[in-house]
């Protein structure tokens, strides 16, 4: 116990300790330590919350990239099957977004990707052997991940355009 205390006798044998100024000062100092402890706890909680927020953002980004990779891969695969092979010697000649929608490669003309931009599919500069898939609106860091993932399904990738 800190400091001297005074004791008084109550009628039924209960004791009460009177608080002196010395004891009061000791309690004030102790409450300051508690405030520091609470502050440390809040700082730790803020760090944990920030880490959780960053992890959530990374997971959302990863999910969006994976969804786009899947969609691009499907469009390329469908294009090869429905136009490249079935087109015979003509290859991708005459390929447009309208034709891609008609053949079911795209759901509709002007179909939007997850970035809110229209997906475009056209013949390449060598229409017999090339088709160009344009996937606009991709953020820079996500673009790298997408290009690395779908690069094996394309013959060339130029400024965001994947040539098939």
Folded structure, characterized:
This protein is α+β, with helices and mostly antiparallel strands and 164 residues long. It has three helices and six strands. It has helices spanning 21-85, 97-102, 140-150, and strands at residues 6-9, 15-18, 119-123, 131-135, 156-158, 161-163. The strands form two sheets. Strands 3-4-6-5 form a four-stranded antiparallel beta sheet, covered by helices on one side. A two-stranded antiparallel ribbon has the order 1-2. The chain starts with 5 loop residues before the first strand and ends with a strand.
* Strand count: 6
Strand line-up across the major sheet: 3-4-6-5
- Strand-residue fraction? 5-15%
Multimeric organization: single chain
**Biggest sheet, open or closed, and with what strands and sense?**
4 strands, antiparallel
Rg estimate, integer Å = 35 Å
The stretches of 5 or more residues where confidence is low (pLDDT under 50) are none
- Mean pLDDT across all amino acids: 77
The coarse overall form would be rod-shaped
Class by helix and strand content? alpha+beta
The SSE order reads EEHHEEHEE
Helical residue percent band: 40-55%
Output the number of helix runs.
3
Q: Span between N and C termini?
A: 83 Å
What keywords describe this structure?
two-stranded antiparallel sheet, rod-shaped, four-stranded antiparallel sheet, alpha+beta, 3 helices, 164 residues, 6 strands, single chain
């Amino acid at each position: 116990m800190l400091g001297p205390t005074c004791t008084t006798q109550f009628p039924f044998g209960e004791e009460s300790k009177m608080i002196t100024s010395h004891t009061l000062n000791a309690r004030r100092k102790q409450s300051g330590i508690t405030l520091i402890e609470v502050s440390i706890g809040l700082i730790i909680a803020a760090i944990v919350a920030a880490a959780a927020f960053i992890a959530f953002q990374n997971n959302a980004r990863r999910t969006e990239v994976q969804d786009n990779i899947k969609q691009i891969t499907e469009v390329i695969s469908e294009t090869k099957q429905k136009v490249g092979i079935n087109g015979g010697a003509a290859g991708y000649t005459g390929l447009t977004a309208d034709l891609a929608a008609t053949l079911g490669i795209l759901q509709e003309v002007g179909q939007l990707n997850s970035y809110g931009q229209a997906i475009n599919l056209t013949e390449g500069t060598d229409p017999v052997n090339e088709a160009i898939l344009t996937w606009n609106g991709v953020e820079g860091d996500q673009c790298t991940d997408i290009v690395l993932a779908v690069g094996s399904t394309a013959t060339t990738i130029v400024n965001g355009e994947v040539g098939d």
